[in-house]
């Protein structure tokens, strides 16, 4: 009998770890791992291909999969490329046939639920997509928003002006993105009807809402309410106050302010750790609940971290910090293979060309991090709501603590690079460790003992991150052979 697992509340999403899939670039139905991919066009990834490779995702420790928008898009090749990404909708009541059939999408949801995993779907309520200039749109081709009255008058966005951000159009005059009047009550009811049916028809467990800063905030609240599932907003802005304000209207938001600070701190040996410390503290004091934010280091819109540095130790530190700080960790496909694409569309590589290598350094690293997060969650009822905080920072190091006494995770992160090393005394007043306490680095599987007051001499080698956890709590964890 199939196990039905669906309908997670926002609070239940805290415990999940999300793997972001760009459907067209993850896996083909024929399982081919050598097919070439023109990054501006459809490359052949499908929902069935994703089903075929769920082991690859689950074995890394992920409990949820976020997929590209599922609706029918414009179907022409333009100077801006094709709609392989899913963000140029034409008919929201039909699925994108390039990814498969409605039956295939149902099968994907079922396959995830049978594994006790969850499905998050990307949706776009801000705009549709038209191959042509903003002044020559044929609105009749869209379903259901098939009249010009459903849209704001054409104007390209001035991102320095908040009114322009909500009322003007993304895109350009090659592919224009007609901007829907999401503040209109009729439009809101149309979106509510659609999203309620979408979630029900495909047993969707969560939503990611694209271009959330470009729609009315009230519409985000209406969408999440109608959907009845946790929703997370894309608000691409580095200002904590700007992003945190969205939690007054929707449960979650992608943590862009911390993304920018994490990237800056770890992308070179000259990164600013103190700015990262301030960023963590500012997000905690500004947002309603940082534990409901999405914590990420890469996505399909931003340059991949390895495009900024090839240093594997810096990547390990950045990923570990991202995954163990407050919030729901999100890993973008290819991150585990150390893909290095920079500007769009170069960061949208076909994952199958990696051969789904489960021996890759970062594949195993991410699996370890998911495992310690899951174990800490099981052994501390308050772990997920405990606000991680910096307990010690210097020019190259930040030490973070999350969790209660005797079940705390203490992360020691650095930007020294693969040739770097350092030693310092971690005080018990910072870590919370007790006297003569055994603690294990669950990444390197080395065990240490604190001194008579709980202090610990820490030695960083080869720029590796260190994740310390009380050794006595590791029994039966399968971490480090315990």
Automatic annotation (TrEMBL):
Q: Which SMART domains match?
A: Aamy
Family annotation (InterPro entries) = A-amylase-like (IPR013777), A_amylase_C_dom (IPR015340), GH (IPR017853), GH13_cat_dom (IPR006047), Glyco_hydro_b (IPR013780)
Its BP terms in the Gene Ontology are: carbohydrate catabolic process
Tell me the residue numbers annotated for binding substrate: 88, 127, 208, 301, 348
Reaction equation(s) it catalyzes: Endohydrolysis of (1->4)-alpha-D-glucosidic linkages in polysaccharides containing three or more (1->4)-alpha-linked D-glucose units
Q: Name one GO molecular function term.
A: alpha-amylase activity
List UniProt keywords, sorted A-Z.
Calcium, Carbohydrate metabolism, Disulfide bond, Glycoprotein, Glycosidase, Hydrolase, Metal-binding, Signal
Q: Which domain of life is it from?
A: Eukaryota
Q: Which cysteines are joined by disulfide bonds?
A: 37-43, 155-168, 244-287, 445-480
Enzyme Commission (EC) number: 3.2.1.1
Q: For site (Transition state stabilizer), what residue positions does UniProt give? A: 301
Q: Which residues form the active site?
A: 210 (nucleophile), 234 (proton donor)
Question: Ranges for the Glycosyl hydrolase family 13 catalytic domain?
Answer: 20-373
Cofactor(s) demanded:
Ca(2+)
Cross-referenced PANTHER family? ALPHA-AMYLASE 1, ALPHA-AMYLASE FAMILY MEMBER
Q: Which family does it belong to?
A: Belongs to the glycosyl hydrolase 13 family.
Stated name of the protein: alpha-amylase
Query: Per the UniProt entry, what species is this protein from, by scientific name?
Result: Aureobasidium pullulans
Q: What is the lineage of its organism?
A: Eukaryota, Fungi, Dikarya, Ascomycota, Pezizomycotina
């Amino acid at each position: 009998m199939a196990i039905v697992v669906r309908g997670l509340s926002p609070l239940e999403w805290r415990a999940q770890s999300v793997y972001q899939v760009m459907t067209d670039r993850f896996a083909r139905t024929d399982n081919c791992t050598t097919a070439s991919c023109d990054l501006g066009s459809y490359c052949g990834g499908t929902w069935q291909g994703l089903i075929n490779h769920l082991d690859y995702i689950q074995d890394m420790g992920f409990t949820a999969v976020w997929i590209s928008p599922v609706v029918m898009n414009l179907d022409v090749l333009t100077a801006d490329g094709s709609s392989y990404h899913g963000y140029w909708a034409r008919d929201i009541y039909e699925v994108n046939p390039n990814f498969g059939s409605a039956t295939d999408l149902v099968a994907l949801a079922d396959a995830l639920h049978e594994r006790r995993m969850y499905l998050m779907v990307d949706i776009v309520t801000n705009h549709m997509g038209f191959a042509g200039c903003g002044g020559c749109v044929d609105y009749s081709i869209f379903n259901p928003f098939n009249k010009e009255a459903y849209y704001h008058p054409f104007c390209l966005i001035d991102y320095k002006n908040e009114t322009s951000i909500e009322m003007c159009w993304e895109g350009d005059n090659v592919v224009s993105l007609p901007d829907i009047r999401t503040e209109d009550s009729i439009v809101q009811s149309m979106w509510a009807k659609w999203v309620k049916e979408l979630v029900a028809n495909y047993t969707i467990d969560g939503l990611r809402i694209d271009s959330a800063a470009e729609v009315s905030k009230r519409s985000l609240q209406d969408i999440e309410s109608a959907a009845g599932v946790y929703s997370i907003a894309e608000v691409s802005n580095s200002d904590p106050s700007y992003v945190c304000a969205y939690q007054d209207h929707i449960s979650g938001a992608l943590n862009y302010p911390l993304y920018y600070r994490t990237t800056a701190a770890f992308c070179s040996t000259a990164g600013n750790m103190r700015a990262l410390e301030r960023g963590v503290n500012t997000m905690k004091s500004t947002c309603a609940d940082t534990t409901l934010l999405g914590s990420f280091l890469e996505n399909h819109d931003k340059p991949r971290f390895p495009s900024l540095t090839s240093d594997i130790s810096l990547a390990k530190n950045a990923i570990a910090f991202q995954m163990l700080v407050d919030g729901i960790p999100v890993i973008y496909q290819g991150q585990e293979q150390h893909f290095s694409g920079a500007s769009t569309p170069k960061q949208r590589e076909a994952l199958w060309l990696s051969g789904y290598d489960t021996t890759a350094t970062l594949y195993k690293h991410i699996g370890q991090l998911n495992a310690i997060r899951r174990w800490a969650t099981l052994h501390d009822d308050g772990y997920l709501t405990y606000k991680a905080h910096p307990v010690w920072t210097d020019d190259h190091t930040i030490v973070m603590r999350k969790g209660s006494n005797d079940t705390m995770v203490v992360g020691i992160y650095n930007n020294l690079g693969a040739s770097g090393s350092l030693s310092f005394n971690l005080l018990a007043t910072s870590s919370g460790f007790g006297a003569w306490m055994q603690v294990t680095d669950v990444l390197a599987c080395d065990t240490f003992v604190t001194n008579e007051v709980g202090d610990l001499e820490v030695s960083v080698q080869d720029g590796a991150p260190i994740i310390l956890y009380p050794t006595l709590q590791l029994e039966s964890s399968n971490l480090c052979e315990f």
